[in-house]
Design goal:
Blueprint: H1 7-15, H2 21-28, E1 36-38, E2 47-48, E3 51-52, E4 58-65, E5 68-75, H3 88-102, E6 106-112, H4 132-142, E7 147-155, H5 158-161, E8 168-172, H6 182-189, H7 195-199, H8 201-208, E9 213-215, H9 218-230, H10 237-241, H11 256-259, H12 270-274, E10 284-285, E11 294-301, E12 304-311, E13 315-317, E14 325-327, E15 330-331, H13 333-349, E16 353-359, E17 361-362, H14 366-370, H15 373-386, E18 391-400, H16 401-406, E19 416-419, E20 424-426, H17 430-437, H18 453-473, H19 476-481, E21 487-488, H20 494-507, H21 521-528
Parallel strand pairs: 5-6, 6-7, 7-8, 8-9, 12-16, 15-17, 16-18, 18-19, 18-20, 19-21
Antiparallel strand pairs: 1-4, 2-3, 4-5, 10-11, 11-12, 13-14
Amino acid sequence: MRDGWGEKYAARVHEKQKLTTRERLVQLCDPGSELFEVGTFVNFGERFGKLESPAAGVITVFGRVHGRLCMIIANDNTVASGAWWPRTPEKIQRAQGIALKLRLPTLYLVDCSGLYLPEQRRSFSGQRGAGHIFKMNSLLSDAGVPQVAGVFGDCIAGGGYMPLISDRVYMTEQAYMVIAGAALIKGAKSTKITSLDIGGPEVHVHQSGCADVRVPDDETLLECMRRDVARLPSSAADFYRGDARPIEPLYSPRELTGIVPADHRQAYDAYELVARLTDQSLFWEVLPDVGTEMICGVGRVGGLYAGFILNRQGLVDDPDHPEEQRPAAILYRQGIAKVAAFSRACNADGIPLIWLQDISGFDIGAEAERHGLLGYGSNLIYTNSTNTTPMFTVLLRKASGAGYYAMAGLPYDPVLQLSTPASRLSVMDGRTLAIATYNTKLDDDFEIMTQDPVERAEIEAGMLEVQKRIEADMDPYVAAAQMDTDEIIPLGELRAWLEVLVEASYQGFGYRRVKNARIWSLHDLAEIGGGVR
């Protein structure tokens, strides 16, 4: 996915004395810094005629420039000259939305030949069609988020509009911005003229004023963009750290792969998970004796406070039936109420929230309905829908049914949703759905009732087909390809991702409430709940 259309097309870029987009990213970002890429699997496995569009032909990354985290949106010039494919506009808008929520400087590396026209119907119109990119440009500008655009080559039609609302626009000598390129003008007006003549730097820097500065080459443009970012206010993260410094967990995050089994039927100790994510493996759990199927608490990540909400696995005591236990990884009344109260408190205190999902769903049945789980669940959904503190969601394994929604799944607009290779996103698993589909053919023990061998074989084959199809649909790479999750990461890299996301939450300042720890609402919540265990 990270090679675009491969070495042949990279060589074509180099023949034009230009850098590939990934080479530009390396030069733009601080030496030795890591890029955290979002949306690498968009359009994965999908063909458009005979062609593929790796990562939808656009690279969107968190990158560090002069120490400041930025959102970088870069057309991949090795994939159809940076054309916009189906889902390319949505991917660009998703990155712009992340930048807007976190107030991250947004840098555009524009090298775009416009819509991939054979598939224009899938990317031109609709609420999230290509034109919505320009609305997002406007919303970022309205919110005071710095935007800097570098135009490196083709910049046609929508690609021509994309840079213009930016605070600073640079063009190389090979770049041009046009509503329509030379080929279209030749066909429409029988005029022979080059795209550079129509909208090159001579026109837009010195005549139209649509660009600010012309530069000789890619390297110079990238250095100019770095200089502009250096002029911005520095990160507020160190202020919010105070005297605390980033400290690694006592236990290696690389051990997470061995702690969280890929088989969702196997339990694990959720505290062992947290111990590999928080600084020094320290964690303040809030309301530990209430709704024990859920774990809520605060830890530092990279020296900065973050709230954690995660599902306990295995069995927990049933408060309504003291002699019994019940499965964890399910939302019951007290757990829902605890999570909602904790979520509201973190929002009031300005603490970013990390949701670690491994959930089978809500409790069901007559007793659950008498307990009013619909109402409690609605309260939690309302809380998460109206929170303004940054929220990040991680699908560890199970992300099932309404539990996925209630724990800030993607429909509830977290800043970012990450998945692991073991995640399974669905209403219900394949076997359960097969049983539900053929329910009238099964007895109370879910065994096929008919004794007719032909009919029995048909039902068995049908149930197996349903199960296989649903299991295939639950593949995280399917979800990532259609943008139902933002990125798939190995569990061992989760701590590194959280460090970046939490720091990004604190980098900007003055646009949201961030309380000092002495006046947290969380202290009141813990005291009311009986103190800290």
